[in-house]
Design a protein that fits this description.
By secondary structure, the protein is mostly helical. It is built from 23 helices and no strands. Helix 6 packs across helix 17, helix 6 packs antiparallel against helix 19 and helix 8 packs across helix 15.
Length: about 475
């Protein structure tokens, strides 16, 4: 790495990871995905499909297919992080320019802030339920849920202040706890409902293929959107990989398997809640509140709290912290970026995003996928088709280099991004084009990628360098 980097584009958190610090192997990436996948939003994703009318096997196949699909852009974007040791906000400078990269980085950060708020609201709910078990009188205190929400928020901020190694420690202990909670819920509700037979025999509500597809298509987009965030910023993690094989194998083993297996627990438990209570209880915190064994419920909620903390920090803080630092590396560190994430997460009002399964899947997940799909399209088309996987790392940290474009901004990339977002989200305003919104991530990805490739054709702005 050259010493001529521009201080407005560089700090130690954004610098390339040297080879001697690239120590993450296959197990680290597999466990990372187990830790991030085994979480309440995964459970709610599956339970939301059941609440929406799918049968158990339709919900499982939808989730499996969505995660296999999103694994493709995940692995493609991961390549540059492993090869060059650079994080997402630096990698995206190659296509958008050293200053233009702030546009996709901030869009990605905004979505991560929303997820941070969602996870924090879930964790606060778990704390609230635990206090109610210990002191039933707490239920009458109207402000209790808000006190618990901000208490869990403060705990997240403390972990962020400790840094990235704390995340690695948490991921090793949280996933087993969450698996135990899921199995406990599964055992409790299926035993109450008379076993797996009655639970898994409940049919879906869709009477025709057309009715099913109308629900399935946006649901699949929501599944892809669920991890569309990390599909962009995966270089933030693969920059520590010891090899391409290690990160690819670890992710391929960890993501689809962990998501599908834990989703099955959410599907089965929610199906059982229909048998038991006559309604689909899609929120596991609310379901734990119906336990008749206070001690068991209390232990389960503690495990849920630990797992939620792990997932929140690993999946929703690392990337936006780097993204905000990228705005002004001299003034904003990883820690400061994490604090900004925390404040923005509250401002986005997560209690509304989790209002019901429809707002969660079709509003939140599908909606933001129309922002992130176009970014992925520009990045992947640029790296693999325009630059042939070759980057000049020094120039990623320098003004006036090959990624300067026009005043630090590649307006071709900005135009391609805008076109993809508009086409993906136009269905919200034009009912006749609703199908474009239902496929928002896919539409945005291919429209922006193809537009970028066309705009960059025959330009001289894709001079390449060699990896460090």
């Amino acid at each position: 790495m050259s010493s001529s980097h521009d201080l407005s584009l560089y700090n130690e958190d954004l610098a390339p990871v040297p080879l001697d610090r690239r120590t993450w192997g296959t197990y680290n990436y597999a466990s990372l995905w187990v830790g991030m996948s085994v979480c309440i939003p995964t459970y709610m994703l599956a339970s939301g499909l059941i609440a929406g009318g799918m049968s158990w096997w339709q919900a499982i196949m939808t989730i499996l297919l969505g995660n296999v699909v999103v694994l493709v852009p995940m692995l493609l974007n991961a390549h540059a992080g492993t090869r060059y040791g650079i994080p997402f906000p630096v990698f995206v400078r190659a296509s958008f320019g050293v200053r233009g990269a702030n546009v996709p980085a901030l869009l990605r950060a905004l979505v991560a802030c929303g997820w941070f708020g969602i996870q924090t609201w879930i964790g606060g709910g778990a704390i609230n339920s635990m206090i109610q078990i210990l002191s039933p009188a707490w239920k009458t205190f109207g402000g209790g849920v808000w006190i618990c929400f901000f208490a869990f928020w403060a705990l997240n901020m403390a972990v962020i202040w400790k840094g990235i190694e704390t995340i690695r420690l948490l991921e090793g202990i949280a996933a087993p706890f969450m698996i135990c909670v899921g199995l406990l819920l599964l055992w409790w509700v299926t035993s109450k409902a008379g076993g797996f037979g009655p639970v898994l025999s409940t049919p879906g509500k869709f009477q025709t293929t057309a009715a099913f597809m109308q629900f399935f298509i946006p649901s699949l987009t929501g599944m892809v959107g669920f991890w569309a965030t990390v599909a962009l910023n995966i270089p933030d993690f693969t920059r520590y990989a010891e090899s391409q094989k290690a990160q690819m194998l670890g992710q391929a083993l960890g993501l689809p398997a962990a998501m599908t297996l834990y989703a099955f627990i959410g599907v089965a438990v929610t199906s059982a809640s229909v048998v038991l209570f006559g309604e689909a209880v899609w929120d596991p915190v609310a379901l734990l509140g119906r336990f008749n064994q206070p001690v068991v419920a209390f232990i389960a909620l503690i495990a849920l709290l630990i797992a939620t903390l792990n997932t929140n920090v690993a999946a929703n803080v690392v990337s936006p912290s780097n993204d905000f630092a990228n705005l002004n590396p001299r003034l904003i560190s990883f820690r400061t970026g994490g604090l900004i994430t925390g404040v923005a997460g509250v401002a986005l009002m997560p209690w509304k995003l989790l209002g019901d399964y429809s707002a969660y899947i079709f509003g939140w997940l599908v909606g933001y996928s129309g922002l992130l799909g176009p970014i992925a399209g520009v990045m992947i088309f640029d790296y693999f088709l325009v630059r042939k996987r070759e980057l000049n790392v020094d120039d990623l940290y320098r003004r006036g280099g090959i990624y300067e474009y026009s005043g630090g901004v590649n307006y071709r990339a900005i135009a391609a991004l805008a076109v993809g977002i508009i086409v993906a989200l136009v269905g919200l305003a034009a009912p006749a084009l609703r199908f474009l919104y239902d496929y928002a991530w896919f539409v945005g990805f291919f429209v922006s990628g193809a537009s970028y490739l066309a705009l960059m054709w025959n330009t001289s702005n894709h001079t390449v360098g060699k990896p460090i």
